[in-house]
Amino acid sequence: MQKKVPLRKCVITQEMRPKKELIRVVRTPDSEVVVDLNGKMNGRGAYLTKDATVIATAKKKRTLDHHLKVKTTDALYDQLLAIAGGTHE
């Protein structure tokens, strides 16, 4: 029997994708916003597709601010772009 692949929804594209194709951003219990690379951290999470244009859209619309209910920084988006492997300006 094949193991079930965990699916998560990207907050920008609204697509259901395998967890490995997404980047998880977490608001920790002490209101810190961090990129969760192994998907196991405590806190409220939001998923983004590993795509420079998706991350640029999230930055422009401040989507993570809305989903995580906290103010995000440009440095966070720069880190996300580095993980996605693209530079989009």
TrEMBL record:
Superkingdom of origin organism: Bacteria
Pfam families to which the protein is assigned, alphabetical: YlxR (PF04296)
Name of the protein this chain belongs to: YlxR domain-containing protein
Stretches assigned to the YlxR domain: 8-80
Signal peptide: none
InterPro entries: YlxR, YlxR-like_sf, YlxR_dom
Originating organism: Exiguobacterium sibiricum (strain DSM 17290 / CCUG 55495 / CIP 109462 / JCM 13490 / 255-15)
